[in-house]
Specification:
The complex is a heterodimer of chains A (251) and B (625).
Chain A (H helix, E strand, L loop, with lengths): L4 E10 L2 E11 L4 E6 L5 H8 L5 E8 L2 E2 L5 H7 E4 L13 H12 L4 H14 L16 H14 L4 E5 L7 H17 L3 E6 L2 H7 L2 E6 L2 E7 H6 L4 H9 L8
Parallel strand pairs in A: 3-8, 3-9, 6-7, 7-8
Antiparallel strand pairs in A: 1-2, 1-4, 4-5, 9-10
Chain B lengths: L1 H8 L2 H29 L25 H36 L1 H17 L2 H12 L3 H28 L2 H8 L4 H37 L11 H9 L7 H29 L10 H10 L13 E12 L2 E13 L4 E5 L6 H8 L8 E3 L2 E4 L2 E2 L5 H11 E4 L3 H4 L6 H13 L3 H14 L5 H4 L9 H12 L6 E5 L7 H18 L2 E6 L2 H7 L2 E6 L2 E7 L3 H4 L3 H9 L39 H5 L5 E4 L2 E3 L10
Parallel strand pairs in B: 3-9, 3-10, 7-8, 8-9
Antiparallel strand pairs in B: 1-2, 1-4, 1-5, 5-6, 10-11, 11-13, 12-13
Chain lengths: 251, 625
């Protein structure tokens, strides 16, 4: 099931504090929107609001035209899935890799039981992991392998929208590249749209089609990646760009 | 789990607990079958007899054998105790789960109720419930069970609250996993260990509680009897036939101890989960460490910092883990050097060892560890502290852990100058204000009176740097100083380090996992992998002439603002070797595309590639990246 994510006038408040203030976002069907901003800017709160894990004060969140807050948990799971930042905290230490992925299939329940094992294998191969890993417990995997298991679990639901929240920031750089490559491969092979949240502008640039720059709960600039980064209009976007330490001299 | 239990039961405590438990269970099963007749045989003529060969614990007022009665009472006593604990669990655990899982309002209401009921003496609660239900065994069981339920409720609530905030529970929720399964698989499975332990020890507590109620006449009543009831009977003849009371009393105490021991044994089994696993690797790791070749020591010079063949080992149950294996490093006065490496490369441990911050039981050795021409390893500790305190400044990743949260920033800064330069309090304060201003903190006079928590992350890092500048350091070691900071703040801190280097002439040793951070600040970069230096080269040649395949892969795998978005990123297959399983040859060989048999067999020495460029590789690569 595909269908983009549309957020309109989203406001999230914790107590009296407004963390997300009237945000509009469009994750266009089949495209990747990179959401970039510094800590405390509210990027992760948007993800949590979409998944029903944060209190929405005002606004609308629709996936494929349907308001997610009116969907049942199962219906929402089919439309939106998420991969979390910490690959050590996001996998149940007591469940095998296969069990973790199978749980996603069971929860949705539209695959006959006898086909689930084959689907687990397919998903593991999709994220470039050996199907032999299915028997292992998460603690025997490296950080990069765990993060790929988390991606496979999310894709088990065949969601229309995948939210990736800082999924490479806890990884070493060489491992980050593995995860990014896997993600790019899947984006080419399967049809879904993605909200890719990161503080790392270079990573966002590499993986995204569109970009939204967030600061203090507000989106300050948004547009196609090439346009925004080549000619940033908002001073904050320019400040972010100037602050990035560069290895290669910019042309 | 089964295997761990087996190992634990082979310990002394474990086997004692197991044997005693088995004995109690057998007694509970067979006691009434074997001794019922004797226990109930009334012979009034033999009432209140003292202990004898025939009656070990003596007899009661109807002449019944107290020893047989004590053995028979095992079943009722243990069953009641287990039942009471069962009730406590069945009531307490769901209440705790509900309170933790359904919103903050329910949680706080729950907490006040539970806190009050825990504060209320359990025995009083038990007596109250028992009296309301009706005096007898069921009343006592229910009473003790309900009295203990709040303890389980609170334990479950705290444990659940800590698990439920973890991402895998959120992940399961977003997956639409049904509540029943969410609780079972994701919450209960991960809080089970402490609950099982508490449940086991609670049987002992229940036993004491029920015995006490029976003793007071609120539990088992004739013709039923448990240990508490027998104790009460025996107490009537304590002066003539003490064993009639001591016998059942001992059994109560013994059983209580068995269940406590059992809880401890189970806790041990859970705790041991992983620690024994690597046992077999000891010999291999030690043999490999012994074979390891060291990097060639650099020639001595008048460098500001001159380190040769630095080694750091951390003792573990599997022998010493070599975190740093022969690092040689030189920093000239005023030079900016970066050390780059991934987690576990030994970069932080190396600089901590240089700064004399690696403590026992870690073992630090070096052929040479010279700073400002003075050998650090032979200095007296007090003199060394003073020497480093004035000449070396350290900046860490997390300034909050290096600043004292209970002291004002100004006091902490001033203290440095008072201790090292013997400045007066007011002079030290003036200098502190100057330094804060120098690192770009506005309104320094006001800021001095604030506490660390009133500073933002970037400001704390500035305050740390200002603290380092209270003396006149010749070298600033900054270990991942910007990793926890936002990119715009990172820029400011890096600029600040550059400015200090330029204006005060202090050399900088910057440690980072991010090679582009180092490229922006430093003149020279040292690349570390698996505890050794694999390459040491000028930053200017990094893109042009990096020779080690690891360095090249590290550069190619990091996307930056010029990376081709239509091509895959370069990756490094596999993962770094574990410290307890290091290879004999080049540590990168198993992940390297250019590796040959030579690389596997022998560690390449750090050899000159060009002027000021060293690499430890049998097959150095060339060409621009």
């Amino acid at each position: 099931m595909s269908g983009g994510l549309v957020v309109r006038g989203l406001t999230v408040r914790y107590g009296g504090r407004t963390v997300v203030d009237g945000v509009d976002l469009d994750v266009v069907d089949g495209r990747v929107l990179g959401l970039v901003g510094e800590s405390g800017s509210g990027k992760s709160t948007i993800a949590r609001a979409v998944l029903g894990l944060a209190p929405v004060h005002a606004g609308a969140i629709t996936v494929g035209g349907q308001e997610v807050r009116r969907l049942s948990a199962r219906e929402r799971a089919r439309r939106v899935q998420m991969v979390f930042q910490d690959p050590f905290g996001s996998l149940n230490p007591r469940m095998s890799v296969g069990g973790i992925i199978r749980e996603g299939l069971e929860a949705l329940g539209d695959l006959p039981a006898r086909e689930r094992a084959a689907e687990v294998t397919r998903l593991l191969e999709l994220v470039s992991l050996s199907p032999d890993l299915a028997q292992r417990l998460p603690r025997r995997l490296s950080g990069g392998q765990r993060q790929r298991v988390a991606i496979a679990r999310a894709l088990a639901a065949r969601p229309g929208v995948l939210i990736a929240d800082e999924i490479t920031s806890a990884l070493d750089v060489s491992v980050q590249a593995q995860v990014l490559n896997v993600l790019r491969g899947i984006l080419a092979a399967e049809r879904f749209s993605m909200l890719f949240i990161s503080h790392n502008l270079a990573v966002v640039r590499y993986i995204s089609d569109d970009i939204a720059v967030m600061r203090d709960g507000v989106i300050v600039e948004t547009g196609p990646v090439d346009e925004v980064l080549a000619a940033p209009r908002h001073p904050y976007t320019r400040e972010l760009l100037d602050a990035i330490p560069q290895l290669h001299p910019t042309a | 789990m089964r295997r761990q239990l087996r190992t634990v039961f082979s310990t002394v405590t474990g086997s004692v607990a197991a044997v005693l438990l088995l004995l109690l269970v057998l007694l509970a099963i067979f006691g009434p079958i074997i001794w019922s007749g004797k226990a109930n045989a009334i012979d009034v003529a033999k009432a209140w007899q003292p202990p004898s060969g025939e009656h070990w614990f003596g007899t009661d007022e109807l002449g019944r054998d107290m020893f047989a009665r004590s053995l028979v009472a095992t079943r009722l006593s243990l069953l009641s105790a287990v039942a009471a604990s069962g009730i406590a669990i069945v009531v307490g655990v769901p209440v705790g789960l509900l309170a933790a899982m359904f919103g903050p309002r329910l949680t706080s209401a729950f907490q006040s109720v539970v806190n009050v009921s825990i504060a209320f003496p359990a025995l009083l609660t038990a007596m109250f419930v028992g009296t309301v239900i009706g005096i007898g065994v069921p009343g006592a069981i229910l009473g003790v069970g309900i009295a203990m339920a709040p303890m389980f409720a609170r334990l479950t609530q705290t444990l659940t609250a800590s698990v439920i905030s973890l991402d895998y529970v959120a992940a399961a929720r977003t997956m639409g996993v049904p509540l029943r399964r969410l609780v079972g698989r994701h919450v209960l499975a991960n809080v089970a260990e402490p609950l099982v332990i508490t449940a086991t020890t609670s049987v002992g507590t229940s036993l004491l509680g029920i015995s006490a109620l029976s003793f007071l006449g609120l539990g088992a009543r004739p013709p039923q009897y448990d240990w508490g009831g027998l104790l009460s009977t025996g107490l009537k003849a304590i002066y003539t036939s003490p064993m009639a009371a001591i016998g059942p009393g001992t059994l109560i105490a013994l059983s209580g101890i068995v269940f406590s021991l059992l809880g401890e044994v189970i806790a041990g089994a859970f705790g041991d989960n992983q620690s024994n696993r690597r046992f077999g690797r000891v010999a291999r790791a030690m043999a490999a460490a012994a074979r390891r070749l060291s990097a060639k020591p650099a020639s001595p010079s008048d460098a500001l910092l001159d380190v040769a063949n630095l080694r750091v080992g951390f003792p573990s149950e599997n022998g010493e883990l070599p975190a740093v294996r022969g690092v040689s490093l030189r920093v000239a006065a005023g030079e900016r050097v970066g050390i780059v490496g991934e987690s576990g490369s030994g970069k932080s441990v190396s600089v901590m060892a240089i700064a004399q911050l690696v403590e026992h039981p870690a073992v630090v050795t070096a052929d040479r560890l010279r700073f400002l021409g003075t050998e650090l390893s032979t200095m007296a500790p007090a003199a060394r502290r003073r020497f480093l305190g004035t000449n070396l400044a350290m900046v860490f990743q997390n300034p909050m852990s290096s600043l004292n949260p209970a002291m004002r920033i100004g006091t902490q800064l001033a203290e440095v100058a008072q201790v090292h330069s013997g400045l007066s309090a007011s002079d030290a304060r003036t200098r502190a204000a100057d330094r804060l201003a120098e690192v770009g903190i506005a309104d320094a006079g006001h800021r001095l009176r604030q506490y660390p928590h009133e500073f933002s992350g970037g400001m704390r890092q500035r305050a740390m740097i200002a603290m380092g500048l209270m003396e006149t350091p010749r070298l600033i070691i900054a270990d991942e100083p910007t990793t926890a900071l936002d990119v715009t703040v990172q820029r400011q801190i890096l600029d600040l380090l550059l400015a200090i280097n330029r204006d005060a002439g202090a050399a900088i040793l910057l440690i980072s996992h991010d090679i582009s951070v180092i490229a922006n600040v430093c003149e020279r970069v040292v690349v570390m992998y698996a505890g050794v230096v694999v390459e040491d080269l000028p930053v200017a040649s990094l893109l042009r002439a990096a020779a080690h395949p690891y360095t090249r892969a590290l550069i190619a795998s990091v996307p930056d603002m010029t990376t081709d978005r239509d091509a895959d990123l370069a990756t490094i297959p596999g993962r770094p070797p574990a410290l307890d399983d290091l290879p004999t040859g080049c540590p990168f060989a198993s992940r390297c595309a250019f590796a040959t048999d030579e690389c596997v067999a022998q560690m390449p020495p750090l050899a000159p590639m060009a002027d000021g460029h060293l690499a430890a590789c049998w097959h150095p690569q060339g060409g621009a990246l």
